[in-house]
Amino acid sequence: MASAPVRIADGATVRLLRPGDRVDVVAAERAGQPRVVAVAARVARVPEPEKVPGDGGALVVLSVPRETARALVGAGSVSRLAVTLC
Fold first, then answer.
1. How far apart are the C-alpha atoms of 10 and 15, rounded to whole Å?
2. Which of 5, 26, 55, 74 has its CA 20 to 30 A from that of 39?
3. Which of the four pLDDT bands, split at 50, 70 and 90, describes residue 52?
């Protein structure tokens, strides 16, 4: 298992999460269908919101298999990420 810091586009959604929750992570691009990148990922940590506004969204740390961690990093660099609670 690996710890994957993931920036979720909707910061308000992240504030609903608690360590131990399970989420599916969905990547959405302007052109194309949304795709599921991680299924039933365990929320390991929800860092405090950033004091200085950044590029939007909020950070969450997920515990996932290494292969899924790599997919999350790749998807997060080109797509907006969202979560659904399981």
1. 9
2. 55
3. low
